[in-house]
Q: What sequence folds into this?
């Protein structure tokens, strides 16, 4: 049974997906400046070990070391996925909400709009 026009927006799972998707995007945007240097340090440790093994085997290391701006594991795909999920949730939530309001115009209550028995 579809919710009535007077049901709160918090009854929709799409509202919560939209809300938490937006919160995740904000959190990711706030964490991104700290992520770059930390991820670059982790990658440089790995690359240093790989270069040491290459030097022991007599091979010249040719891969550049990671920097905070250029890492092997970037956050960009996560931003795109979260933005896509948030946009889809927003569209489904608001289009469903608009459809509900069109089906039940303001001022008409589906519970009282049934035919009345007159004496």
A:
């Amino acid at each position: 049974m579809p919710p009535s026009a007077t049901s709160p927006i918090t009854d929709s799972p799409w509202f919560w997906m939209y809300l938490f998707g937006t919160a995740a995007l904000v959190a990711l945007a706030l964490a991104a400046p700290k992520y770059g240097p930390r991820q670059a340090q982790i990658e440089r440790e790995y690359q240093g070990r790989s270069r040491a093994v290459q030097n022991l085997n007599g091979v010249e290391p040719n891969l550049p070391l990671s920097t905070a701006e250029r890492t092997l594991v970037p956050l960009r795909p996560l931003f795109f996925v979260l933005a896509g999920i948030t946009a889809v949730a927003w569209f489904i939530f608001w289009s469903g909400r608009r459809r509900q309001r069109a089906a039940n115009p303001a001022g008409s209550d589906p519970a009282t709009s049934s035919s009345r028995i007159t004496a």
Observations:
- Helices lie at 13-56, 76-103.
- The chain has one domain: 12-102.
